[in-house]
Amino acid sequence: MALMGAEWLQTGRNIPAGGTIHHVRYETGTRSSKEHLRDLNSVLTTLLGRTPFKGSLNLRADSPVTFDAPAEFPVADRVWLLVPVVVNGAAVGVAARKPPPVATPFIEVFACDQIAPQLDLKDGDLVGLQILSGEHLGLDDHARSTT
């Protein structure tokens, strides 16, 4: 079966309702996402419908955030946890993390476009983040959801 992504994630239209809303802060990055993109580029390209931006949006919550029913995607020697997200109700992307830990205040978001300038974010800005269940990614049986 082929790996597919959800149409809403590729177009930014008809965003699913639900999930959890978090108020987090935008932080400028350290450019470490290049390492993660080596592992994630193929799955992110499929999920997002085109090649992702060569960086990530770094967000930090006041307390650890757990992804609700993330999709697990094995890459190389790791299993990545993936969930779709909506930033400030306007930009869509995929949050990814490789445990441990499963819950952490840091959230790394990958998208097709560079979200920070798109939303005019400055270091330290408060951001609304809607985290949806991994089931909204549109992954087939190559990935499975955790419970």
UniProtKB/TrEMBL annotation:
GO-annotated molecular function: nucleotide binding; riboflavin kinase activity
Keywords: Flavoprotein, FMN, Nucleotide-binding, Transferase
InterPro entries: Riboflavin_kinase_dom_sf (IPR023465)
Record GO biological process: riboflavin biosynthetic process
Protein name: Uncharacterized protein
Taxon lineage: unclassified sequences, metagenomes, ecological metagenomes
